[in-house]
Amino acid sequence: MNILITGASRGIGSAAYELLKSRGHNVVGHSTKGSEDLIAGDLMDPAVPRSIWEAALDRLGGRVDALVNNAGIYEAIPLDARDRDWRTAWYSTLVINLQAPADLSRLAVQHFQENGGGRIVNVASRAGWRGDSPQHWHYAASKAAIIGMTKTIARAYAADGILAFAVAPGFTVSEMTEEYLAGRGGAAIVADIPLGRVASTTEVAEVIRWLATEAPASSTGSTIDVNGASYVR
Length: 233
Known about the structure:
By secondary structure, the chain is of the alpha/beta class. It has eight helices and nine strands. The strands form two sheets. A seven-stranded parallel β-sheet has the order 3-2-1-4-5-6-9, with helices on both faces. A two-stranded parallel ribbon has the order 7-8.
């Protein structure tokens, strides 16, 4: 399969990128700064989703079979922040976590309609179901919206062979969180997880791989939780 994944330079995105490549898929990745292998693009720029999509089509011979919207940000903003800072935090989070995936999904749906179908996998979050910290209203809102968007795409385009899924990780260990998990904050997080540990990026990547390549068509519209039973529904 030909697969495009955003935010592929670290964490869950990097793990999914490497796993999909190791299974023999043709994978094109994206990151903000890019690299020898990854397409560059700052998702705050409204022109970038289309430029990423077109670059991926070029690298993949004109055909994409699956889109993985993984890129996202998680930046705190306190309740007592200045109005300008509060609105800036909301704006940037919604642009990167929601608008850019929507733009890419729109391009993917149009492409899939012309090419016999395809798959979209959106990386949401446990926060989209249960909410997040008092400093992360905007993050939780963006991920809840991603889940709603996924369901809408699934319902609207299943007849065209277009499948849409989401994965909702809880706290995940990566190079970004390793130091925090080693401290007192990490102990509190683990105490809230019945499994007794946070998820690994490898585990989340495996769910992404399955959804992007193997999940049965009848499961379209579903969200797979990867949170060690810290939130069940």
